[in-house]
Each structure stands twice: as C-alpha cells, then as structure tokens.
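Bumping my old thread because nobody answered last time. Still need a sequence for this structure:
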C-alpha cells in the first residue's frame, strides 16, 4: 500500500539570509552620519540605471520578450545594468520570467498569485522552487553566450566591485544608500509587479490570469505596472496602451529608435 505524503517546501537559507542582511544594511540609512544628499542622489541614479534600464528595459522587454532589438554592445550594457540590481544572474531571471508567463497564476507559476500576496511578493524566493530546474529549457537563446554566462556566475562579485567603487567615491554613506537602500528598494518595486499587479487595479483585457493594470506600480517601475496589458500582449514593447497609461520605458525605447538603437519594435494589436 502506498501512502500519499505532501512535500513541505524547503527554505532556501542562502536567499533568506541574504535578504535579511540586505534589509539590515538598509536600516543603517537611519544613522545620521550615513545621510547625505549626494548619497541619496547616488541611490536614485542607480535605481534608474539598475531598475529602469537594467531590469525593465534590459532583462524584461529586450531579453525576456524580445520586443525590440538593439546592437549587441547595447544589449550587453543593459544586461549588465540589470545584473547590478542583484536579482540573480540574467539567465536565471529571464528563464524564471518566461516560465511565469507560460504558467501564469497556476501551480506551475514560480510566484503564483493565487498563493497569496506574501507568496507572490517574496515568499516564493525564500523557498526552493522546482521551477529552477526548468530554466535551461527556457533560456537556450542566451545560455551559451559567454557574456551572459559571466554575468550569471559573478553577479555578486560585480556588486561588490560597485560597492568598492562607491566607497572610493563617497565613503560608507554611498555604500549604504547606493547598495543596500537601492537594492532593497528596487527589489520591492520589482516584486510589486508579481504581487500588487495581480491584486490591485483594473483589467482591460482577458489575459487568462489575474493580472491587473496598477498606476502606482507603473510609477515605481517605469511602466511595468500596466501588467494586464503586458500579459495580454507579451511581445509588445509598449505596456501603457492608453494615453493616460504613462510608460517611461516605452519612451526610452522611442528615444533609442530616434538614434537607430532600437529596431524591429513590436507593438500590441489592440484589435486582437
């Protein structure tokens, strides 16, 4: 006789302790000696570089969905910016996101929103996920690229190098704000796309899942908050499809087009 047993998810202690350390480091921003407007400026600049150019423009719209093309040197630069967000290496990030779209809001979705806000926001990251074993199948287009391999393998050391540069430029306050505060802020902004935009906001399209358009998430993540639009038209370089749906990343792509740096730009056909 076979007795059915349920397998309890195992905590990923590496991720868990890493997240705890980063959040503790960010709390040092409240120490008066660690505050300066220059340090805040560094954090804001890196927020845009890593979260806007790196994650949103590079990892997501360019590499994951191939919604436009750029010269290879620019692709590598944007992927480097995304790597500096410290959300894992680019191969793992892209593969996980492609899996999410294929199985959105099902039990095979790495951050299935049906498991609750906490799970889709951060819970899925502090447990070992079986979806990680599927990443190679979804990243065959980039897995053999030596630049992607380097960034995947050394993304922590690259962050350390940035930290050393910030110490040289402005001391410990630059590290507190430019590394710890900035990483934690970009983390939660990115995670809100997985959690808040499957719970709050409005739906313009039947996308087959619970994705929503949430204006305040769009503000925080450079246009990614128009998530229902994105799930309905995953290939589209433009996520804000109505005039009031401001999409800063789409504006960036338009600017790249002006200089001939963005080509084969794919757009949603709202008649579908």
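Sorry it took so long. Here it is:
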């Amino acid at each position: 006789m076979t007795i059915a047993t349920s397998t309890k998810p195992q905590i990923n202690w590496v991720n868990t302790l890493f997240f705890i350390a980063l959040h503790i480091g960010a709390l040092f921003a409240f120490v008066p000696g660690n505050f300066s407007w220059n340090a805040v400026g560094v954090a804001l600049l890196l927020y845009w570089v890593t979260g806007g150019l790196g994650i949103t423009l590079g990892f997501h719209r360019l590499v994951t969905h191939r919604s436009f093309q750029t010269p290879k040197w620019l692709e590598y630069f944007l992927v480097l910016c995304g790597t500096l967000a410290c959300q894992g290496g680019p191969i793992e990030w892209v593969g996980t996101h492609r899996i999410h779209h294929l199985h959105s809001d099902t039990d095979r979705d790495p951050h299935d929103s049906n498991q609750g806000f906490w799970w889709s926001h951060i819970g899925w990251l502090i447990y070992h996920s079986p979806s990680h074993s599927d990443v190679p199948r979804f990243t065959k287009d980039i897995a053999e690229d030596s630049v992607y391999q380097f960034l995947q393998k050394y993304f922590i050391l690259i962050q350390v190098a940035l930290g050393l540069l910030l110490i040289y430029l402005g001391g410990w306050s630059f590290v507190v704000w430019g590394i710890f505060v900035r990483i934690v802020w970009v983390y939660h902004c990115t995670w809100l796309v997985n959690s808040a935009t499957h719970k709050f906001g409005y739906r313009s399209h039947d996308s087959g899942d619970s994705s929503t358009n949430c204006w305040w998430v769009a503000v925080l993540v450079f246009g990614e908050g128009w998530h229902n639009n994105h799930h309905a038209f995953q290939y589209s370089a433009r996520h804000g499809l109505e005039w009031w749906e401001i999409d800063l990343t789409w504006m960036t792509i338009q600017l790249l087009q002006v200089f001939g740096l963005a080509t084969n730009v794919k757009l949603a056909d709202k008649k579908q």
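Confidence is low (pLDDT under 50) at residues 1-6. Let me know if any region looks off to you.
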